[in-house]
Amino acid sequence: LLVPFAQFDNWLDAQMEGRNFIAGDRFTLADILLFSFVAFGEQIGQPLNRDFKNLSAWFDRCAARPSTKA
Description:
The protein is an all-alpha fold. The protein is 53% helix and 0% strand. The chain has three helices and no strands. The chain has helices at residues 5-15, 29-43, 53-63.
């Protein structure tokens, strides 16, 4: 069963309420993988919809990490 990404965004944004990272308060492989996916989308003209406030805050937290600048 394939779910359109827009529906996934809605679901994940709601799940992220009150969390710093995908799996809670720790930065994990889940964050690295999703961040890479979303960052790639931005590079090819499919940016994160900033209407998703929780996902946007998460993305910005990940982007601010020193390791993403390497």
